[in-house]
From TrEMBL:
Keyword Transport: no
Protein known as: Glutamine-dependent NAD(+) synthetase
Domain CN hydrolase: 17-282
GO MF term list: NAD+ synthase activity
Enzyme class: ligase
Residues that bind ATP: 372-379, 486
Residues annotated for L-glutamine binding in this entry: 132, 209, 215
Reported function: Catalyzes the ATP-dependent amidation of deamido-NAD to form NAD. Uses L-glutamine as a nitrogen source.
Keyword Nucleotide-binding: yes
UniProtKB keywords: ATP-binding, Ligase, NAD, Nucleotide-binding
Originating organism: Novosphingobium soli
Pfam families for this protein: CN_hydrolase, NAD_synthase
Length: 684
């Protein structure tokens, strides 16, 4: 697809808003210089298709000017500069948030001015004035924390003034923002909390904030926590080089967070102007709030601020067409992505499963754990989880009874891996050839295969899958144990499991909350970080390199084995689809848009740490669309009856699980028509 004129490629149509934190050049108390620096950055942001541009606190005068704030010449110069910026904004796309001090009724206020399309839309005063250690703001400014339903005269124009303002786009439905200033979000009750409850999806902070050791981390903590707690995006912009260093220093830090995730951060201590850009997903924020009744409850307790706050509408001209997408998109949303906490995250994910299984072992007082070991990914992972559970409970690993059960499609490679793994881990290992029993059943039901015909249909496959599960349940009864399920979250999403007496059923499903991509990653982590003995680690790596296959159909004449991903699509795409649809309820067209940006270029973006080079794939839009259509059919219209009857198993990822007792409840007889129609209408 080379024609990018289709509306699909326009990010605004998918609910994104391009925001930026700008740290312009400033000169202490030089209003004309600072005005021109601001306008230069506005023009640069316009060229970058920015919709919302946040400047530092008091950027027109500069912040650290002490008693110069009370000089009338400077106050008048600031007001004149505001008029020029308002006029210049008429032909520029960004909505501007500019910091300036303004007088009103005998008081001077530290303010944020909201400017768009040649209009001053409103003015927000700072609520909390720091007056401790190096700060003396109460010497110059009045607090605006109680100002509501007021106006202020700026250059002869009366505009809304107060801390009760939410600014709402007339063009993009969920583009609604609230403004606070520096110290406000260090307060115990930040004004932005009410702003979010009043409907703002983006919270903006114009800050000066001098830098000291550790303060950058503190800003990150506050931005991250406020964006997560308020279910919002948070844009923070601090003053930088050019502020007075008489007693303080400045680093010009710009940060953009969304729902607790860091989207962008500027270079600190830069000499040149900084423009920290990110595309915020306002629709994702709005949809997440629909899922959070606690958010609505907080709005009720706060007196429903959306009914008392003033909404200030604004017109703007967002760019059309393909302007790219400036935000990190995780190719593997279920896989740990924090490089500095990679080991801790993998340890946590693995031990959630271990702890769940331990508790079930304690409660059932079982004498054994029964696992079918195929030599594939899922049974391998279930086995090493069980091994660690035994270790932690002080039980011998021979408590685990592993059975490899070759069928008509079992390859020597996977069978060999199964035996090597069971021996390396040190469990009780046995083999049961299910082919004689399968032939008997196929003959009893009159299947053509029993008469010598090469008919390898679903019944042929399910007879084998069902027999394996049947054997495991009877063995569990015989050995006073329970069956540890091996099926994973990805298979549950796609219905890629045999219902009832099949791999859909077990006594406890340790992998039910773990998608295939995470299982692959956790096995690699176990194999490369000394979690098990060297012999076990070696076989784990061998299993990772094996083609994913149910091995229920005999290999072809060319030796080609049955491929799971060739039938249902790459798991890395299916897990991507699952995360965005299950966790955030995203429309298929948006999922396709995100997947295209994440997967179209293997050389672009970030991959999980230590990800093998040879497995770094890329997909064209047509491929993404084709597999997404199949995912929608399987997920919404085909697979729910299997999920509605799944056994117990622990939730592992914040991305969600598919237990009918947990994250996902849905009817088994639903139609996928709505999702397929949306995909067909909006994705080329």
């Amino acid at each position: 697809m080379t024609d990018r004129s289709h509306p699909f490629f326009a990010m605004h149509g998918h609910g994104f808003v391009r925001v930026a934190a700008s740290t312009p050049r400033v000169r202490t108390a030089d209003v004309a210089f600072n005005r021109d620096a601001v306008l230069a950055e506005v023009r640069r942001a316009h060229e970058a298709h920015v919709d919302l541009l946040v400047f530092p606190e008091l950027c027109l005068s500069s912040y650290a000017i002490d008693d110069l704030h009370l000089q009338s010449a400077l106050i008048e110069a600031v007001e004149a500069a505001i008029a020029e910026i308002v006029t210049a904004s008429a032909d520029l796309s960004p909505v501007l948030l500019v910091g300036a001090a303004l007088p009103r009724k005998g008081r001077l206020y530290n303010c944020a001015l909201v400017i768009a399309q040649g209009r001053l839309l409103g003015v927000v005063p700072k609520s909390y004035l720091p007056n401790y250690r190096e700060f003396y703001e109460k010497r110059w400014f009045a607090s605006g924390k109680a100002i509501r339903n007021a106006t202020i005269a700026v250059n002869g124009q009366e505009v809304p003034f107060g801390v009760d303002l939410v600014f709402a786009s007339e063009v993009l439905a969920n583009f609604r923002f609230f403004v606070e200033i520096c110290e406000d979000f260090w307060a115990a009750t930040p004004p932005s909390s009410l702003g979010a409850l009043a409907g703002a999806t983006i919270l903006c902070n114009l800050s000066a904030s001098n830098i000291v050791i550790g303060k950058s981390d503190e800003r990150h903590m506050l931005c991250r926590s406020q964006s997560a707690r308020a279910a919002a995006a948070y844009i923070y912009c601090a003053a930088g080089h050019g502020e007075s260093t008489t007693d303080l220093a400045w680093d010009g830090q710009g940060i953009v967070y969304e729902l607790g995730d860091l989207l962008a951060e500027s270079e600190r201590f830069a000499l040149d102007p900084e423009l920290c850009i990110a595309d915020v997903d306002c629709d994702r924020i709005a949809m997440d709030r629909l899922r959070l009744p606690t958010f609505n409850d907080a709005a009720e307790v706060a007196g429903r601020p959306e009914e008392t706050f003033r909404t200030i509408p604004f017109a703007h001209a967002p760019s059309t067409g393909d302007i790219g997408l400036v935000r990190p998109i995780r190719r593997f949303p279920f896989v740990p992505a924090r490089a500095d906490k990679l080991d801790a995250d993998c340890y946590e994910a693995f031990n959630i499963q271990v702890d769940g299984l331990m508790r079930r072992m304690e409660s059932t007082r079982s004498q054994s754990l029964v696992i079918g070991v195929s030599g594939g990914l899922d049974s391998t992972h279930a086995l090493i989880v069980a091994a660690r559970a035994c270790d932690r409970l002080g039980l011998p690993r021979t408590t685990i009874r592993g059975y490899t059960m070759p069928g008509f499609g079992t390859s020597e490679g996977t069978k060999s891996n199964a035996w090597k793994l069971m021996n390396a881990v040190g469990i009780t290992a046995e083999e049961i050839d299910i082919r004689p029993a399968a032939r008997t059943m196929l003959k009893d039901i009159g299947h053509p295969f029993a008469g010598g015909e090469p008919v390898y249909d679903v019944t042929f496959e399910n007879v084998q899958a069902g027999l394996r599960t049947d054997y495991l349940f009877r063995l569990a009864s015989q050995h006073s144990g329970f069956v540890v399920g091996t099926g994973d979250l990805s298979e549950l999403a796609l219905g890629w499991c045999t219902y009832g007496v099949g791999d859909q059923m077990s006594h406890y499903a340790v992998n039910a909350g773990v998608p295939k991509t995470l299982i692959q990653y956790l096995i690699r982590w176990c194999a490369t970080t000394g979690q098990f003995e060297a012999a076990t680690e070696e076989i784990l790596l061998s299993i990772l390199a094996t083609e994913i296959s149910p091995e229920l159909v005999p290999a072809g004449e060319d030796g080609e084995i049955q491929s799971t991903e060739g039938k249902i699509g790459p798991y890395e795409l299916n897990d991507f689809f699952l995360h965005h649809i299950m966790r955030f309820g995203q429309k298929p067209s948006k999922v396709a848009f995100l997947a295209w940006h994440a997967w179209r270029d293997a050389a672009a973006g970030n991959w999980p740490a230590h990800f093998p080079e040879e497995k770094k794939n890329a997909y064209e839009l047509a491929t993404i669309r084709s597999w997404l259509e199949q995912f929608l059919r399987r997920f919404f219209a085909f697979s729910q009856f299997k999920r509605s009857a799944i056994p117990n198993g622990p939730k592992v990822s914040s991305g969600g699980a598919l237990s009918p007792r947990g994250d996902w409840r849905a009817p088994s007889d639903a139609s996928a028509a709505v999702w397929l129609a949306e995909l067909d209408a909006r994705v080329p």
